[in-house]
């Protein structure tokens, strides 16, 4: 099963390289890595030269458009997303692929751990319903934990580029209305806490 990993980024060259390295360190190797540069001016393109990934540049249009751009170029059966300041655990893709095959789910989440200025762990729920997604964040780690069948993502129209906040929850609800949901009971994504508040204005 080919998995498309999509990383949007805007002027985060150093952190982006950490995120990319976490993808290259995956125990599962049937993936393509797509980096969507949302108009960076910090030398991101030069830093990625020669890497085994697909680089796409677009004029600055925001994180949701960048994710949709990556999804439109993807060839994988499943899509997953990683913010440019976060990381995947080494077995993230392997465990989600195995869970997808076992559960026949079209949308899969997991737990997450936190690093940086904050630490801790957020557990996954053993089962998730559409109602769960309406009431609270049933996918800890937000967009980083979305592992979705590409056909379902396309069916719901991807991320809503009009939203400036909670675009992940909006997408999850629309996906859950049409697809089967499941979750891996393990912290498979690593979310960075920045000093102060954890802003999502930049991918």
Index terms:
single chain, 203 residues, Spore Coat Polysaccharide Biosynthesis Protein SpsA, Chain A, disordered C terminus
What does it look like?
- The protein is an alpha/beta fold.
- It has helices at 13-24, 44-47, 63-73, 92-103, 130-135, 150-156, 167-178, and strands at 3-9, 31-37, 54-57, 78-81, 87-88, 107-116, 120-122, 147-149, 181-193.
- The longest helix is centred in the first third of the chain and has 12 residues, at 13-24.
- The two termini are 27 Å apart.
- The model is unreliable at 196-201 (pLDDT under 50).
Secondary structure blueprint with pairings:
Elements: E1 3-9, H1 13-24, E2 31-37, H2 44-47, E3 54-57, H3 63-73, E4 78-81, E5 87-88, H4 92-103, E6 107-116, E7 120-122, H5 130-135, E8 147-149, H6 150-156, H7 167-178, E9 181-193
Parallel strand pairs: 1-2, 1-4, 2-3, 6-9
Antiparallel strand pairs: 4-8, 5-9, 6-7, 6-8
Summarize the structure.
By secondary structure, this protein is α/β, with parallel strands linked by helices. Helix content is 32%, strand content 26%.
**Number of separate domains:** 1
Low-confidence spans: 196-201
Fourth-level CATH superfamily: Spore Coat Polysaccharide Biosynthesis Protein SpsA, Chain A
Per DSSP, the total helix count is 7
Percentage of residues in strands: 25-35%
- Output the CATH class name: Alpha Beta
Total beta-strand segments: 9
Instruction: Report the end-to-end length measured between terminal Cα atoms.
Output: 27 Å
Shape: globular
Summarize the main sheet: 9 strands, mixed
CATH architecture type: Alpha-Beta Complex
Please write the string of helix (H) and strand (E) elements. Answer: EHEHEHEEHEEHEHHE
Reported by name, the CATH topology is Spore Coat Polysaccharide Biosynthesis Protein SpsA, Chain A
